[in-house]
Amino acid sequence: MKFYLDDLPILFPYDYVYPEQYAYMRDMKRALDGKGHCLLEMPSGTGKTVSLLSLIVAYQLHYPERRKLIYCSRTVPEIEKALAELKRLMDYRHAQGAKEPFLGLGLTSRRNLCVHPDVSREKHGETVDARCRSLTAPWVREQHQQQQQTGDQMNVDVELCAFYEHLENADDSATIPSGVYTLEDMKEWGRENTYCPYFLARRMIPFANVVIFSYHYLLDPKIAELVSKEMSKDSIVVFDEAHNIDNVCTESLSIDITRPMLDASARSCRALMDKVTELKASNSEKLQNEYSRLVEGLREVQAARETEELMANPVLPEDILHESIPGNIRRAEHFVAFLQRFVEYLKTRMRVLHVVSENSNAFLQHVKEVTFIDKKPLRFTSERLGSLIRTLELSDLADFRNLQKVAAFATLVSTYQKGFLLILEPFENDQDTIPNPVLHFVCLDATIAIKPVFDRFSSVIITSGTLSPMELYPTLLGFKPLVIESYPMTLTRNCFLPLMVTRGSDQVAISSKFEVRNDLAVVRNFGNILLEFAKITPDGLVCFFPSYLYMESIVSAWNDIGMLQEVLKYKLIFIETPDAAETSIALENYRTACNNGRGAVLLSVARGKVSEGVDFDHQYGRAVILFGIPYQYTESRLLKARLEYLRDHSNIRENDFLTFDAMRHGAQCVGRVLRGKSDYGIMVFADKRFARQDKRAKLPKWLARGVTDASLNLSTDMAVALSKQFLRVMAQPVGDAEQGTQGGTRVAGRHGRVGVSLWDEKMVADVAAAERIQQQKSAGVLQPGTVGIAALR
Ligand code: SF4
User: Fold this and answer.
1) In sequence order, what are the residues at sequence separation of 6 or more whose Cβ sits closer than 8 angstroms to the Cβ of residue 123?
2) Is Ubl conjugation there in the keyword field (predicted)?
């Protein structure tokens, strides 16, 4: 369908648009028009991605100065989904006669894009990177060339990658035609034309209209500069699935150093020293050349690392890059000795048996007192190590990974002061007696990593299905949104049923509160909820616990009281573990069990792999149970430090942040089962605290609207009775009939939904006209966020 938002023509690849999609696009356009940022919460399964792409692509093509969209998502499957959606949209636009040249592509790691017959078979990303580097590093190519020039063709034993060579030799003529390329399309094109898809994609970024990649390409300073420096200020940036974006920001600037890492680093230092001595004897000119380059400043060095993102510097301010490297680390052997001293210092620091918490300045002061190492050379450590690795022509970087981390730590700790803290924990748990020290360098302030993005790009869109409570994001991320909006879900049948179960059938209150969580009555009542829902839920039932520790203790208690055996009579049970491979197998088997018809139970944890990015649509999730409120482990020193920082610097109280964080993760978990309007599911919030207004108010608007008085403060048997009724209604087929009554509830077929939850072209035009009149009435002044969806109906 085609409709207009003001004078902007939108081609939307479906016959109908949801009212919330229309409102979403309209508000986004407002932010783009005003060159401002926005924060938009769109219910799960309401076509957020397609609305976003339809609007922005139309906007880009209408206003040629906004040529680029940078779309960031979290996982590779999400990137693939967005690319597929973009492809569908562009196909539709072409079918409608819009024949504009357009390039859309995705960028991800070598592991997902490599087409080399041997290298692409490797399973681990790090191995693919290392092997690729050993085929493409400049010195490897140089060696190959020398061998070719000197020896006869038969004796050339330095291997190269044909795909990379062809691309390099093609220079600027290596391009891809207009179109949208999924990761698979890109590989296909690479194979056919003998171009490496990974490097080709990177090369094409400046020419692409839409680039889809993971958050890290913009937020992680270690790689952000390498891929994002070409992006113009007028680019539109989108962070999708952004409910956790503040944590991604803080994690991208945090580093943990452990004792084994330091031991490995010390070994790497010795290996480096041997290499330096070797090179000094065989070709000292190379070291001398490096020395001269370093005197010139880092800008020169920078040019050499275009393809080496792993060697990229954590972050160095622009002015530093023009300075020359401090004299005491210019010579290779001096630098390695410097590194050795620093590693030894860290080892000694780790020998303490009490927790140490200090800021960067205190740490640097101590380093100076003990080792005479200054702050300035420390700042250059990471870059200097990268340069040395290149000079020594080391391609297999796996051995140096730990040393690189230590070097990144040195650079970060000497570059950042405010918003960072060093915490040295000698024991893994407070009860342990054998030390296992970890030195955490933690970023407490999410604004630091994202500030360059807000400063550089005029429109940044932060969106997700679960952003509530939204008020905290502007403070947490340090930006002023032009538009903040949360959209309800227009439904003609209530396809999800939130239930606040506060007590068991025996009327004992249930909660995952620390004081009561292990009471036998609570454990038994939680078990009863699982058992009762296992009996009535068709197909899949997903359960979430606040932590692995709690899940383990409660599952073992259920086992002891025979609860698991009871559940097994109705459904198979699968459990998520911290091991990613094990969890993937459990998930696969869970899906098989759901496909077989009997269904299964999946026990998992909030904030785990399953709660983020795994969808349980249709038969894979007909009910989800949240056992307790997923609060973070509040005794963690890292969390305490962040809470203190937020309280002192952002005026966010500890409790407010903890509840905000728990509720956004809770909403994320329950949202997994509803992936579209044709889907349906029961959402059980099993904790008496969920019934409180302060908790409910923090649920997303679309979800909170489903919570009625009848679904508050329920006991297990009441919840089961409501669920049975709900499932009976949902099990009825919805045809295209105008309207009907099923099980006492009014439902609508497609024609019944038109005008309510579906709008056709004419209805959109009417709404737009009504909006215009309203705008004129209010003298053309429309406050941001004042026109909600309710006003349109
Ligand atoms: S250059 Fe490309 S195709 Fe060749 S090994 Fe590296 S990633 Fe694979």
Assistant:
1) none
2) no
Amino acid at 721: A
Provide the token pair at 466: 């679960």
pLDDT digits (tens, 9 = 90+) for 737-764: 545 444 444 555 565 566 677 888 888 8
pLDDT for 315 equals: 54
Rounded to the nearest angstrom, the distance between the alpha carbon of 118 and the centre of ligand 1 is 10
Alpha-carbon torsion 673, 677, 679, 681, what sign? positive
CB atoms within 10 A of CB 771: 17
**What is the Cα gyration radius of the chain?**
29
CA of 187 to the centre of ligand 1 (A): 11
Distance 160 CA to ligand 1 centre (A): 9
Alpha helices in 38-195 (DSSP H): 48-62, 76-95, 110-113, 125-136, 138-150, 162-170, 183-193
Residue with the larger pLDDT of the pair 162 and 598: 162
Mean of all residue pLDDT scores within the chain: 86
What was the pLDDT predicted at 786? 44
The protein residue whose alpha carbon is closest to atom 1 in ligand 1 is: 164
d(Cα 279, Cα 118) in Å, to the nearest integer? 31
Q: Residue 619 is encoded by which pair of tokens?
A: 């038969």
First-residue to last-residue Cα distance in the chain: 20
How far is ligand 1, taken at its centre, from the CA of residue 509, in Å?
Answer: 59
- Ligand 1 atom 2, closest CA: 196
Q: What is the DSSP letter of 678?
A: T
Ligand 1 midpoint to CA 541 (Å): 42
Which amino acid residue places its CA nearest to atom 7 of ligand 1?
114
Among 131, 132, 191, which residue has the most ligand 1 atoms within 8 Å of its CB, making it the best to mutate?
132
Domains parsed from the chain with CATH numbers: 2-113+176-252+448-486 (3.40.50.300), 255-415 (no CATH), 496-735 (3.40.50.300)
Alpha carbon of 126 to ligand 1 centroid (Å): 13
pLDDT digits (tens, 9 = 90+) for 252-292: 899 999 999 999 999 999 999 999 998 888 877 878 878 77
Residues with CB under 6 A from ligand 1: 110, 114-116, 119, 132, 135-136, 161, 163-164, 196, 198-199
Tell me the CA distances in angstroms from 757 to 16, 19, 680, 788, one per residue in order: 9, 6, 16, 15
Which tens digits make up the pLDDT trace of 298-328?
A: 554 454 444 444 444 455 555 565 566 777 8
Q: Which of 122, 134, 135 for a ligand 1 pocket mutation test, highest count of atoms within 8 Å of Cβ? A: 135
